[in-house]
Amino acid sequence: MSAAPEVDLAIVGGGIVGLATAERFLARHPGRSVALFEKERALARHQTGRNSGVIHSGIYYKPGSMKARTCLAGKRALEAFCAEENVALETCGKVVVALDELELVQLAKIEERARGNAVPCQRIGKERLAELEPHAAGIAALHVPGTGIVDYPGVCAALARRIERAGGELHLGARATAIGTDGSRVRVASANGVERRARALVNCAGLHSDRVLELAGGSRSARIVPFRGEYYELVPAARHLCRNLIYPVPDPSFPFLGVHFTRLVHGGVECGPNAVLAFAREGYTRGTVVLGDLWDALAYRGFHSLAWKHWRAGLGELHRSFSKAAFVKALQRLCPTIRAEHLVPAPAGVRAQALLEDGALVDDFLIVERGSEVHVLNAPSPAATASLAIADAIVEHVDALLARSSGRAALQTERPA
Q1: Rounded to whole angstroms, how far apart are CA atoms 15 and 345?
Q2: Model's pTM, two decimal places?
């Protein structure tokens, strides 16, 4: 085996979490080395570059959970980063709208979580809702003034600049094809011929994170099942129907948020998403089918359990996927003046959702250690908001691994012959 250049840290995945991890590691350890492998020829081409650009405030997450902690810390860090790097960001606020008395009960629970996470918010009535969002329906709402919108691809470009200034390597078009041990190091080989030996490895491969774990010799205790989120956007003449962000009260029995309205930081208003099984890990259209990806989901016992539990809601999501009229009807619950002619198709995204064998969706972020490796196996929303804080947590894992590795090396050096 030929010698490969050595780095302190190899990272697989060039989305916002992988880039943030590289930047934070180099900032914390000046002079150390990082090599990041990204299979696409540009950064942030999947979940990061296809989300709605919201900076979440942390109102939905269980207090004390990793999602809650990192969302709150990550939001502050992201806002400071964008100010330093001149990345487009706006704190515009949002309303979570209750449409009937039953939803008021759930709205109160969301408000309680928001208070538990120290997120400023205010219960408002119909009059104040009409001032904030004149075209929104609802008998009450939760106003969350700290929610914002941001240019996440711009954040990634700024992170990449910082990484390169600090001497980090960004390898594009470099899909990881082999991960193994090489003495006391992890060896990563890529499709374009780049190889590195690393003291530690971080897997931030998103839609392919479980497969990268498997490539490294691990077993998939949780499997990524891809769900496509399909969107429309408002035509320019209808953008006045949504001033900022209008969200529904989520159905606690269904694992997805439901359709909502989001103003984008560079203009426009996005409506959606619905959530349907994607027939490929990168299945951004209904016609994109990768048989291996599809079989990987359909043959999985966990998916069978999930589908059986949520079949009724799933059929509704599928109906909206094929029927614009059904999609419009769902949007009209929040904004009754919306009409089909107000909407044109917008790019879809695919959510990488980790699913357990019993059909349970992994709700929190999931970061696991394996030897000299750290695998990020579940990082759905609010991962982009929380990315800098998640990166800090990952770097703490890496530092612990490197410290243990150095300790083992010292013991081996001092051991008498």
Answers
A1: 25
A2: 0.95
Distance CA 91, CA 363 (A): 26
In this structure, is the dihedral angle defined by the CA atoms of residues 313, 318, 324 and 326, taken in order, positive or negative? Answer: negative
CA distance 347 to 46: 11
Give kind and range of the element (H or E) at residue 351: strand 343-356
Q: What is the pLDDT of residue 414?
A: 37
Task: Quote the CA–CA distance of 259 and 365 in Å, as a whole number.
Answer: 23
Are 366 and 222 contacting, i.e. CB atoms less than 8 angstroms apart? yes
pLDDT, one tens digit per residue, over 367-411 is 999 999 999 999 999 999 999 999 999 999 999 999 987 765 543
| Cβ-based neighbours of 84, under 8 Å, separated by 6 or more | none
Give the domains, in start order, of the chain with CATH numbers.
Answer: 6-47+153-221+365-414 (3.50.50.60), 92-147+223-356 (3.30.9.10)
Are the C-beta atoms of 313 and 257 separated by less than 8 Å?
no
What confidence tier does 53 reach under pLDDT thresholds 50, 70, 90? very high
